[in-house]
Amino acid sequence: MPEERLQKVLARVGFGSRRACEELIAGGRVTVNGRVARLGDRVDPSRDVVEVDGSRVNLDPRVRYYALHKPAGVVTTLRDQRGRPDLRPLLPPGPRVYPIGRLDRDSEGLLLLTNDGELANRVMHPRYGVEKEYLVEVEGEPTERTARALERGVELEDGLARAVSARVVGRRPGRGALRVVMVEGRKREVRRMLEALGFPVRRLVRLRVGPVRLGRLRPGQVRPLTPEEVRALYRATGL
To answer: Do 205 and 151 sit in the same domain of this protein?
Structure first.
Protein backbone atom coordinates (compact mmCIF):
# COMPACT_ATOMS: atom_id res chain seq x y z
CA MET A 1 0.00 0.00 0.00
CA PRO A 2 1.50 3.41 -0.95
CA GLU A 3 2.36 5.94 1.74
CA GLU A 4 -0.09 8.78 2.37
CA ARG A 5 0.03 12.03 4.30
CA LEU A 6 -0.73 11.38 7.94
CA GLN A 7 -3.44 14.04 8.21
CA LYS A 8 -5.25 12.56 5.19
CA VAL A 9 -5.26 9.09 6.77
CA LEU A 10 -6.52 10.41 10.11
CA ALA A 11 -9.28 12.40 8.42
CA ARG A 12 -10.40 9.33 6.47
CA VAL A 13 -10.83 7.24 9.62
CA GLY A 14 -12.92 9.86 11.37
CA PHE A 15 -10.72 12.37 13.20
CA GLY A 16 -12.36 15.37 11.56
CA SER A 17 -11.22 17.59 8.72
CA ARG A 18 -7.64 17.55 7.48
CA ARG A 19 -7.14 20.89 9.23
CA ALA A 20 -8.35 19.40 12.50
CA CYS A 21 -5.99 16.45 12.01
CA GLU A 22 -3.10 18.83 11.31
CA GLU A 23 -3.86 20.51 14.64
CA LEU A 24 -3.74 17.10 16.38
CA ILE A 25 -0.32 16.47 14.84
CA ALA A 26 0.97 19.97 15.60
CA GLY A 27 -0.17 19.55 19.21
CA GLY A 28 2.05 16.51 19.68
CA ARG A 29 -0.91 14.18 20.23
CA VAL A 30 -0.06 11.76 17.40
CA THR A 31 2.75 9.22 17.26
CA VAL A 32 3.95 7.01 14.40
CA ASN A 33 5.73 3.83 15.41
CA GLY A 34 6.35 5.32 18.85
CA ARG A 35 7.77 8.63 17.58
CA VAL A 36 5.93 11.94 17.95
CA ALA A 37 4.61 12.79 14.50
CA ARG A 38 5.39 15.98 12.58
CA LEU A 39 3.41 17.81 9.93
CA GLY A 40 4.39 16.41 6.56
CA ASP A 41 4.87 12.84 7.80
CA ARG A 42 3.68 10.06 5.51
CA VAL A 43 2.52 6.62 6.64
CA ASP A 44 1.76 3.23 5.19
CA PRO A 45 -1.64 2.23 6.67
CA SER A 46 -0.85 -1.46 6.21
CA ARG A 47 2.42 -1.30 8.16
CA ASP A 48 2.77 1.71 10.44
CA VAL A 49 1.38 1.97 13.97
CA VAL A 50 -0.34 5.30 14.60
CA GLU A 51 -1.60 6.40 18.01
CA VAL A 52 -3.65 9.42 19.05
CA ASP A 53 -3.48 10.39 22.72
CA GLY A 54 -1.81 7.05 23.42
CA SER A 55 -4.50 4.90 21.80
CA ARG A 56 -3.88 2.91 18.63
CA VAL A 57 -5.82 3.89 15.51
CA ASN A 58 -6.99 1.27 13.02
CA LEU A 59 -5.94 2.72 9.66
CA ASP A 60 -7.68 0.16 7.45
CA PRO A 61 -9.85 2.29 5.10
CA ARG A 62 -12.52 -0.43 5.08
CA VAL A 63 -12.97 -0.67 8.85
CA ARG A 64 -16.27 0.56 10.28
CA TYR A 65 -17.78 0.93 13.76
CA TYR A 66 -21.48 1.50 14.47
CA ALA A 67 -23.99 1.59 17.30
CA LEU A 68 -27.41 0.07 16.56
CA HIS A 69 -30.55 0.10 18.69
CA LYS A 70 -31.76 -3.44 18.12
CA PRO A 71 -35.55 -3.60 18.38
CA ALA A 72 -37.29 -6.34 20.33
CA GLY A 73 -38.39 -9.19 18.06
CA VAL A 74 -35.26 -9.09 15.87
CA VAL A 75 -32.74 -11.92 16.09
CA THR A 76 -29.04 -11.04 16.26
CA THR A 77 -27.96 -12.67 13.04
CA LEU A 78 -27.46 -11.61 9.43
CA ARG A 79 -29.70 -14.38 8.10
CA ASP A 80 -32.17 -16.37 10.16
CA GLN A 81 -32.84 -19.87 8.86
CA ARG A 82 -36.30 -19.85 10.42
CA GLY A 83 -37.34 -16.71 8.55
CA ARG A 84 -37.62 -14.47 11.61
CA PRO A 85 -36.77 -10.73 11.34
CA ASP A 86 -32.97 -10.35 11.37
CA LEU A 87 -30.41 -7.55 11.22
CA ARG A 88 -30.08 -7.24 7.44
CA PRO A 89 -32.62 -4.42 6.93
CA LEU A 90 -30.96 -2.43 9.73
CA LEU A 91 -27.35 -2.57 8.50
CA PRO A 92 -25.77 0.64 7.19
CA PRO A 93 -24.54 0.84 3.59
CA GLY A 94 -20.89 0.24 2.81
CA PRO A 95 -18.48 -2.49 3.90
CA ARG A 96 -20.11 -5.49 5.59
CA VAL A 97 -20.16 -5.30 9.39
CA TYR A 98 -21.07 -7.88 12.00
CA PRO A 99 -22.61 -7.71 15.48
CA ILE A 100 -20.32 -7.84 18.50
CA GLY A 101 -21.98 -10.45 20.67
CA ARG A 102 -25.72 -10.98 20.84
CA LEU A 103 -28.95 -9.72 22.30
CA ASP A 104 -31.67 -12.33 22.50
CA ARG A 105 -34.74 -11.93 20.35
CA ASP A 106 -36.95 -10.52 23.10
CA SER A 107 -34.34 -8.00 24.29
CA GLU A 108 -33.55 -4.61 22.81
CA GLY A 109 -30.96 -1.89 23.04
CA LEU A 110 -27.34 -1.26 22.16
CA LEU A 111 -25.63 -3.59 19.72
CA LEU A 112 -22.19 -2.72 18.36
CA LEU A 113 -21.41 -3.51 14.71
CA THR A 114 -17.93 -3.68 13.20
CA ASN A 115 -15.62 -5.51 10.82
CA ASP A 116 -12.67 -5.04 13.21
CA GLY A 117 -12.36 -8.68 14.25
CA GLU A 118 -9.70 -8.20 16.92
CA LEU A 119 -11.69 -5.54 18.74
CA ALA A 120 -14.91 -7.61 18.46
CA ASN A 121 -13.24 -10.65 20.02
CA ARG A 122 -11.90 -8.64 22.93
CA VAL A 123 -15.21 -6.89 23.66
CA MET A 124 -16.92 -10.30 23.83
CA HIS A 125 -14.27 -12.14 25.88
CA PRO A 126 -14.89 -11.96 29.66
CA ARG A 127 -11.15 -11.78 30.42
CA TYR A 128 -11.07 -8.16 29.23
CA GLY A 129 -13.87 -7.17 31.60
CA VAL A 130 -15.87 -4.98 29.21
CA GLU A 131 -19.04 -4.06 31.08
CA LYS A 132 -22.52 -4.38 29.66
CA GLU A 133 -25.25 -2.41 31.45
CA TYR A 134 -28.94 -3.31 31.28
CA LEU A 135 -32.22 -1.76 32.36
CA VAL A 136 -34.47 -4.63 33.38
CA GLU A 137 -38.19 -4.35 34.09
CA VAL A 138 -39.55 -7.28 36.11
CA GLU A 139 -42.72 -8.67 37.59
CA GLY A 140 -42.77 -8.37 41.36
CA GLU A 141 -41.17 -5.78 43.62
CA PRO A 142 -37.38 -6.17 43.84
CA THR A 143 -35.55 -4.70 46.82
CA GLU A 144 -31.94 -3.91 47.66
CA ARG A 145 -31.78 -7.47 48.93
CA THR A 146 -32.51 -8.61 45.36
CA ALA A 147 -29.71 -6.41 44.06
CA ARG A 148 -27.24 -7.78 46.61
CA ALA A 149 -28.21 -11.34 45.65
CA LEU A 150 -27.37 -10.57 42.00
CA GLU A 151 -23.97 -9.24 43.08
CA ARG A 152 -23.23 -12.25 45.28
CA GLY A 153 -24.13 -14.58 42.43
CA VAL A 154 -27.01 -16.80 41.35
CA GLU A 155 -26.49 -20.50 40.72
CA LEU A 156 -27.74 -21.44 37.23
CA GLU A 157 -27.69 -24.76 35.42
CA ASP A 158 -24.45 -23.74 33.67
CA GLY A 159 -22.72 -22.39 36.78
CA LEU A 160 -22.64 -19.35 39.01
CA ALA A 161 -23.63 -16.05 37.39
CA ARG A 162 -22.69 -12.82 39.12
CA ALA A 163 -23.44 -9.16 38.40
CA VAL A 164 -20.67 -6.59 38.72
CA SER A 165 -23.27 -4.25 40.20
CA ALA A 166 -27.04 -4.04 40.55
CA ARG A 167 -29.45 -1.47 41.93
CA VAL A 168 -33.18 -0.96 42.09
CA VAL A 169 -34.23 2.10 40.07
CA GLY A 170 -38.01 1.84 40.24
CA ARG A 171 -40.79 0.05 42.04
CA ARG A 172 -44.59 0.16 42.03
CA PRO A 173 -47.25 -2.39 42.98
CA GLY A 174 -46.43 -5.63 41.17
CA ARG A 175 -43.64 -4.15 39.06
CA GLY A 176 -40.03 -3.08 39.45
CA ALA A 177 -36.91 -2.06 37.53
CA LEU A 178 -33.21 -2.61 38.08
CA ARG A 179 -29.96 -1.54 36.46
CA VAL A 180 -27.62 -4.50 36.17
CA VAL A 181 -23.98 -4.47 35.02
CA MET A 182 -22.39 -7.69 33.72
CA VAL A 183 -19.11 -8.68 32.09
CA GLU A 184 -20.15 -12.17 30.98
CA GLY A 185 -22.44 -12.83 28.05
CA ARG A 186 -24.00 -16.23 28.56
CA LYS A 187 -27.26 -16.91 26.79
CA ARG A 188 -30.18 -15.08 28.43
CA GLU A 189 -28.04 -14.75 31.54
CA VAL A 190 -29.66 -11.70 33.14
CA ARG A 191 -33.15 -13.07 32.47
CA ARG A 192 -32.27 -16.42 34.00
CA MET A 193 -30.69 -14.83 37.08
CA LEU A 194 -33.75 -12.74 37.86
CA GLU A 195 -36.20 -15.54 37.12
CA ALA A 196 -34.23 -17.76 39.52
CA LEU A 197 -34.79 -15.11 42.21
CA GLY A 198 -38.53 -15.02 41.48
CA PHE A 199 -38.68 -11.95 39.24
CA PRO A 200 -39.72 -12.82 35.64
CA VAL A 201 -38.41 -10.26 33.15
CA ARG A 202 -40.94 -8.20 31.23
CA ARG A 203 -38.47 -6.01 29.30
CA LEU A 204 -34.69 -5.87 28.97
CA VAL A 205 -32.79 -2.99 27.36
CA ARG A 206 -29.00 -2.85 26.99
CA LEU A 207 -27.93 0.70 27.74
CA ARG A 208 -24.15 0.48 27.48
CA VAL A 209 -21.25 -1.61 26.18
CA GLY A 210 -18.03 -0.47 27.83
CA PRO A 211 -17.70 3.28 27.18
CA VAL A 212 -20.38 3.36 24.44
CA ARG A 213 -23.92 4.31 25.46
CA LEU A 214 -27.25 3.80 23.72
CA GLY A 215 -28.21 7.42 24.33
CA ARG A 216 -31.14 8.68 22.29
CA LEU A 217 -30.96 6.13 19.48
CA ARG A 218 -34.47 4.93 18.70
CA PRO A 219 -35.26 1.28 17.90
CA GLY A 220 -33.92 0.47 14.43
CA GLN A 221 -31.62 3.50 14.25
CA VAL A 222 -27.89 3.17 13.62
CA ARG A 223 -25.05 5.69 13.93
CA PRO A 224 -21.27 5.62 13.42
CA LEU A 225 -19.19 5.54 16.58
CA THR A 226 -17.16 8.68 17.17
CA PRO A 227 -13.35 8.43 17.06
CA GLU A 228 -13.38 9.07 20.81
CA GLU A 229 -15.69 6.08 21.37
CA VAL A 230 -13.52 3.84 19.20
CA ARG A 231 -10.38 4.91 21.07
CA ALA A 232 -12.14 4.31 24.38
CA LEU A 233 -13.07 0.77 23.26
CA TYR A 234 -9.47 0.15 22.29
CA ARG A 235 -8.31 1.34 25.71
CA ALA A 236 -10.94 -0.75 27.49
CA THR A 237 -9.77 -3.91 25.74
CA GLY A 238 -6.04 -3.23 26.01
CA LEU A 239 -5.44 -2.92 22.27
So the answer is: yes
